Amino acid sequence: QVQVVESGGGLVQAGGSLRLSCTASRFPFNLYTMAWFRQAPGNEREGVSCISWNGDSTYYADSVKGRFTISRDNAENTLYLQMNSLKPEDTAMYYCAAVYQGYNRYVPSLNKLDYNYWGQGTQVTVSS
After folding, report:
1. What are the residues facing 62 on neighbouring strands?
2. 119: closest CA among 79, 89, 83?
3. What pLDDT does residue 56 have?
4. What is residue 99's predicted lDDT score, i.e. its pLDDT?
5. CA 73 – CA 25 distance, rounded (Å)
6. Mean pLDDT of 82-105
7. Nearest to residue 16, comparing CAs of 90, 80, 79?
8. What is the chain's Cα-based Rg?
């Protein structure tokens, strides 16, 4: 079955950096729009960033714009999230998600209801 596996989370001090990875298998990764979401305890799952099938188009939540960078390597079926200038409010479980959109039909979305493949998450904790 479809597999989406996140890695790279951990504990970091405020102002530090982390790079998350998401490895996908058993679906045509290069036809899927990919995204990162996060969920802190007691909060709704929120969209962080998404990226088009070819990596040419990206979209960010205002809360992370200028600090986080999403990217993908279709040859390796891997999605990345480079997180810089981390803040304590970035603390959350981070999830990778996928939705089929196909070539040249990218529509950016940070709505969790639009995505149908999800990983188990990787924890990011930022200490002050």
Report:
1. none
2. 79
3. 94
4. 95
5. 13
6. 94
7. 90
8. 14
Q: Which of 4, 22, 10, 34 is nearest to 91 (CA)?
A: 10
In angstroms, rounded to a whole number, what is the distance separating the alpha carbons of residues 81 and 52? 14
- In three-state secondary structure terms, 87 is coil
Residue pLDDT, tens place only, 62-77: 999 999 999 999 999 9
State whether residue 111 is helix, strand or coil. coil
Distance CA 102, CA 89 (A): 34
pLDDT greater at residue 96 or residue 104: 96
Answer whether residue 53 shows pLDDT above 90. Answer: yes
Instruction: List alpha helices for the chain, DSSP H.
Output: none
Rounded mean pLDDT, 35-48: 97
Q: Count CB neighbours of 2 within 10 A.
A: 11
For 27, which DSSP code?
S
